[in-house]
Sequence to fold (112 residues):
Amino acid sequence: MILTKNEFYAYMLTYAVQADFKVSADEKEFILSRIPEELYNKVSRILDMDTDYEAIQRIVANVREHNYDSKNPDKIIDDVRAAMNSDGEMDSTELAAFVGLRRLLRNGGQKN
Fold:
C-alpha cells in the first residue's frame, strides 16, 4: 500500500485527473510533463485495480508515510489543481474531488 514518494506523486496526479471518469489528452500531457510514462502506466494500473475505498486508504497511508500533513503540502496541492485544470476546466465532480484531496493532504485523513 505504501508507494515511494515519486510513485505517490504520480498516483495523486493520475487519481485527480480521473475524478470525472475520463482523462483528456491535455490532462495526460500535463502528467507526462511531470513524470515518466512508465511511472504513469504503473500507477494507472494500480488505480484501475483499487476500489474507491482502497484508493482513499492508499492516499491517507502515503500522506502519513511521507509526512505531507506535517510538511507544507502546497506544491502537490498546486500540481493536483493544475492537472485538473489542464484541460481548461474543472467541473463540479473534479472540484469536489479536489477539495477532498486537499483536505487529505493537509491533515493526513484526520477529521477536523
